[in-house]
């Protein structure tokens, strides 16, 4: 399997081994991105989403409701669909009985931006119900971006919130849950993989260890992400420890390994970002800028410092994460939308956004500090003796059986279908 070259922290080329397995074989079940079909059902402010719903529900006739909905081939005011798993929403057609506003839920946009979504199946073209069935406090979602000629850095992102499966640049990825059942049941791993690794490394290997290793060692490669598996137990342990730290940071402490239990990421004292000049409670900033000399993030009249240069420069798929986060909460956000309800935004900067921004700065700064260590580990994993695809085939781990690429079929609860009928699953 030919690999794609990418630069390490020491500017040395690192190329995936030809026999390194793909992530798609190690975590075989994957789901394409969500497709809401309309932008007004998502956003950074849940209060704005409720106002949009109220305007839709208050529409005087079906034609006006259709105009506000912004219909598509998949969703019109007359579309009848079941509830999303775990959500208590109306199932009658929007034209007849919109019902009360669904409570907005968190979702991850581009990996690092936690936004809000109206979880009503009648509003979402392709909601991926199979993901909603397994989304709980025990779940972790890995998003693997499609390969690019120059590679994508980092090639994987992980979130505890349901992700939309797209990069900040809008490219589609694949969503790979760690578990195939709620409650952390049935790992989404190639059958026999953990048993083989336990035998070869002479130490217990848990499903979360495989995910942690992949987060630390994965490389963009032809056909997806390559994950070189080491034969050395010491290298494995160092990679798992680094991957757990990455998971803890990317999930804001939701992953309970890799950081102090029950805590969220924080910079050491003296380096923590603070609000030096507050943003006005009314009105949104028109622009976002960075003062490198003062290590300050400038949002209109607001000022946050210190913001390390690594946090400001941190990018995913060529998009600067901090700049994109601020742009989505600026005065001009959504101005070019063709959807009437998208204009119902917010003109205030809620205190929650400041808290989220400070945490995002912290996470990006700490992730940037880990990049040289991750680059060095990738290089070592590529050069060291490993467990390649031939050995995985000989052990019966590869090829992955077709059933491993499908979601689990047994559910622990009933789901309401169209018109209040219970779905038969």
Structure description:
The chain has 425 residues and is an alpha+beta fold. It has a domain at 274-362. It is 28% helix and 16% strand. The protein has 11 helices and 20 strands. The strands form 8 sheets. A 4-stranded antiparallel sheet has the order 14-17-16-15. It has a 3-stranded antiparallel sheet with strand order 3-5-4, covered by helices on one side. A 3-stranded antiparallel sheet has the order 7-6-8, with no helix packed on it. β15 (288-291) and β16 (296-299) form a beta hairpin. α7 (233-250) packs antiparallel against α10 (351-383). Residues 1-13 have low confidence and may be disordered.
Helix content: 25-40%
Q: Show unreliable segments.
A: 1-13
Major sheet: 4 strands, antiparallel
By DSSP (H or I, 4+ residues per run), the number of helices equals 11
- The general outline is globular
What spatial order of strands do you see in the largest sheet? 14-17-16-15
Q: What value does the average pLDDT take?
A: 90
Cα separation of the termini: 39 Å
Q: Mind telling me the C-alpha Rg?
A: 23 Å
Give the strand content. 15-25%
State the total count of DSSP E strands.
Answer: 20
- Structural class label: alpha+beta
């Amino acid at each position: 399997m030919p690999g794609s070259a990418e630069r390490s922290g020491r500017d040395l080329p690192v190329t995936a081994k030809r026999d390194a397995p793909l992530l798609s074989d190690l975590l075989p079940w994957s789901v394409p991105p969500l497709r809401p079909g309309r932008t007004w059902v998502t956003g950074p402010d849940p209060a704005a989403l409720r106002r949009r719903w109220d305007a839709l529900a208050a529409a005087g006739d079906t034609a006006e409701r259709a105009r506000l909905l912004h219909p598509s081939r998949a969703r019109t005011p007359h579309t009848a669909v079941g509830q999303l798993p775990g959500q208590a929403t109306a199932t009658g057609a929007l034209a007849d009985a919109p019902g009360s506003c669904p409570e907005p839920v968190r979702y991850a946009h581009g990996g690092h931006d936690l936004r809000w979504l109206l979880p009503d199946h009648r509003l979402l073209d392709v909601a991926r119900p199979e993901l909603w069935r397994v989304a709980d406090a025990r779940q972790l979602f890995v998003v693997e971006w499609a390969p690019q000629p120059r590679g994508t850095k980092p090639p994987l992102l992980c979130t505890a919130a349901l992700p939309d499966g797209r990069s900040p640049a809008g490219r589609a990825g694949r969503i790979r849950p760690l578990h195939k059942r709620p409650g952390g049941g049935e790992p989404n791993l190639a059958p026999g993989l953990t048993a083989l690794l336990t035998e070869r490394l002479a130490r217990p290997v848990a499903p979360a260890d495989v995910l942690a290793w992949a987060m630390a060692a994965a490389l963009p490669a032809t056909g997806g992400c390559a994950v070189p598996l080491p034969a050395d137990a010491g290298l494995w342990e160092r990679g798992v420890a680094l991957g757990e730290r990455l998971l803890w940071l990317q999930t804001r402490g939701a992953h309970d390994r890799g950081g102090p239990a029950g805590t969220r990421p924080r910079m050491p004292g003296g380096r923590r970002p603070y609000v030096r000049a507050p943003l006005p409670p009314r009105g949104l900033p028109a622009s976002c800028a960075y003062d490198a000399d003062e290590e300050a993030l400038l949002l209109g009249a607001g000022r946050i410092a210190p913001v390390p240069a690594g946090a400001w420069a941190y990018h995913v798929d060529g998009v600067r994460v901090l700049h994109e986060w601020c742009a989505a909460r600026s005065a001009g956000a959504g101005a070019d939308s063709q959807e009437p309800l998208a204009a119902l935004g917010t003109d205030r900067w809620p205190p929650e956004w400041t808290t989220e921004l400070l945490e995002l700065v912290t996470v990006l700064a700490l992730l940037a500090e880990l990049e040289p260590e991750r680059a060095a580990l990738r290089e070592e994993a590529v050069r060291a003796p490993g467990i390649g695809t031939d050995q995985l085939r000989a052990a019966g781990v590869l090829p992955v059986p077709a059933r491993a690429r499908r979601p689990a079929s047994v559910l622990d609860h009933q789901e309401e279908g169209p018109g209040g009928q219970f779905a038969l699953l």
